[in-house]
Design brief:
mainly alpha, 7 helices, globular, Heme Oxygenase, Chain A
């Protein structure tokens, strides 16, 4: 699914800390954007699902912050490019569309995690990535069950925004890590 997979693999060898810093930021943004929606959700099952995704993202943000620091990078110094901010600004208002968008986002994240796992050199990086991949896969399954087949539009939008982000962000890793 990643258009620039081989470039990403090349760039991140020895620079995985930059990806950890990026995702520490991104996970925190998702926490902030999703948590405020919890009071609006009337369906208790969807409330539980969104709360679980918020919790998972908060936990992953901490894990990725720790890994960035282990690579001697300050995750608070990460600067998100405009194309990255567009992925957060593109989140729809409608709950069903939001869940579909989240599905597309997590599917893209799964592709990234696979690349990160391939280039991980430190044992703890590999452990964290395996843990996050497993949790991400479970979240994808739950979101697919919740949104069904109505996810194509918003999920496709998420995939497109993240595709553009990767093309911009990948070369930036060279100077970050």
């Amino acid at each position: 699914m990643l258009e620039n997979r081989s470039q990403l693999e090349q760039v991140l060898r020895g620079r995985l800390g930059a990806a950890f810093a990026r995702h520490a930021y991104g996970m925190r943004r998702w926490v902030d954007l999703f948590a405020v929606r919890l009071p609006e959700i009337r369906d208790p099952h969807l409330t539980e699902l969104v709360a679980a995704i918020v919790h998972q993202n908060a936990r992953h943000a901490v894990l990725f912050r720790e890994r960035a620091v282990a690579h001697e990078l300050d995750p608070d110094r990460y600067e998100c490019p405009p194309e990255g901010e567009a992925t957060y600004e593109g989140i729809p208002e409608d709950l069903d569309e939001t869940l579909a968008y989240a599905l597309g986002s997590l599917e893209h994240f799964a592709d990234l995690l696979a690349v990160y796992a391939e280039v991980a050199q430190l044992p703890r990086d590999a452990e964290v990535l395996a843990e996050v991949r497993a949790e991400n896969d479970r979240a994808i399954a739950k979101l697919r069950a919740a949104v069904g087949h109505s996810s194509n539009g918003a999920a496709a939008t998420a995939h497109q925004l993240y595709r553009v982000r990767e093309l911009v962000e990948t070369p930036l890793y060279v100077n970050r890590g």
